[in-house]
From TrEMBL:
Pfam families: DDE_1 (PF03184). Residues 201-211 have a biased composition (Low complexity). Keywords: Endonuclease, Hydrolase, Nuclease. It comes from Popillia japonica. SUPFAM superfamilies: FYVE/PHD zinc finger. The keyword Nuclease applies. This is DDE superfamily endonuclease. Residues 12-80 form the DDE-1 domain. Residues 161-212 are annotated as: Disordered. Residues 161-175 have a biased composition (Acidic residues).
Length: 283
């Protein structure tokens, strides 16, 4: 490739080879061709009998001349066989007969290389390929790929369900509130009534009324047994707590016992009205 043609920048060499791995996957061969101004063209698989000049014009006559040389040797030497010592001489005789300029010219012309002929092949040259022309089979996914795909599908389904739940939570609560108002309306007996305005007693200032309210609230918070304890001087005060359910004032109860505080609204109610026992501190 390098010694005989002596390629150069001004006179490069075109080398046409088949697609064997020793040619197409040989890095040392490819680098040497680049360094010596040689262009290598690999033919498609199973096409060398139509596209490679050596296969088209040279190998046939060369094989014929070699067989003739072997037959001639066997006839001239009865009882002897062709060994490794005779192969070189017989091969040389056949090569000199086959390797002629006319054979090389016909090979390049028959393959459409020189002169270039794009229509050198006819439809008949492709008929044999139609018998084995089958669609490529898609590789079947293995077990790991199937499991991975199923896992991804499950994750996507779970994500879609979460999105649906979030969309339900983000809906306008006004419609649901209006639809359930009839269940939220308090009954007649439990409807909260506004406390009557307290009128200060003669000789009592507004500051003393405010201080009394604060004192009473502190007393409510410190109760641990659920019972109210008022000073005797506040019994006659009109600002009194009422039951959360029946609205009876604490001052009007007979024994002033049996009261319990709501832990939510911090208001008081009869234990009987709230349905609680005496040992309960709050409800």
């Amino acid at each position: 490739m390098v010694i005989q043609p002596k390629p150069s920048v001004a006179d490069p060499v075109l080398l046409i080879l088949d697609g064997h791995s020793t040619h197409s996957k040989n890095l040392a061969f490819i680098e040497k061709a680049r360094e010596n101004h040689t262009t290598v063209v690999c033919l498609p698989p199973h096409c060398s009998h139509k596209m490679q000049p050596l296969d088209v014009s040279f190998m046939g006559p060369f094989n014929t001349f070699y067989v003739q040389a072997v037959e001639k040797y066997l006839k001239n030497n009865p009882g002897r066989v062709v060994s490794q010592f005779q192969v070189s001489r017989l091969l040389g005789e056949a090569f000199l007969k086959a390797a002629t300029p006319a054979t090389a010219i016909n090979g390049f012309r028959k393959c459409g290389i020189v002169p270039q002929n794009q229509d050198v092949f006819t439809e008949a040259d492709y008929v044999a390929a139609e018998c084995t022309d089958m669609p490529l089979q898609q590789p079947r996914p293995n077990q790991e790929e199937r499991e991975a795909r199923q896992t991804v599908d499950r994750i996507l389904e779970a994500a879609e369900e979460d999105v649906e739940e979030e969309s339900l939570l983000l809906e306008d609560p006004q419609d649901q509130t209006e639809a359930g108002q009839e269940y939220l309306q308090p009954g007649p007996s439990s409807r909260s009534q506004p406390d009557p305005p307290s009128s200060p007693q003669p000789g009592t200032s507004s500051s003393s009324q405010t201080s009394f309210a604060v004192t009473r609230q502190l007393q409510f918070d410190e109760q641990s047994d659920g019972e109210l304890q008022f000073d005797e001087q506040s019994d006659g005060d009109e600002s009194d707590t009422d039951c959360l359910y029946c609205h009876e004032l604490y001052s009007c109860s007979k024994d002033r016992k049996g009261w319990i505080k709501c832990s939510g609204c911090r208001r008081w109610a009869h234990e009987a009205c709230a349905g609680c026992e005496e040992e309960d501190d709050c409800f």
